[in-house]
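Example record for the data management plan.
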Amino acid sequence: MSEHKHGEMDITVQEKTFEGFVKFMTWSAVAIILLLLFIALVNA
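Corresponding structural encoding:
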């Protein structure tokens, strides 16, 4: 086995995946908040 050298791995795919995850979660949170506000206004 070769020795592991810290910091030499290409992580561009992981970074893009994480960026997509964060973007998805942000938009999901915004959509949920808007949905809750809409429901509150309709029931008021």
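Summary line stored alongside the record: The two ends are 66 Å apart (CA to CA).
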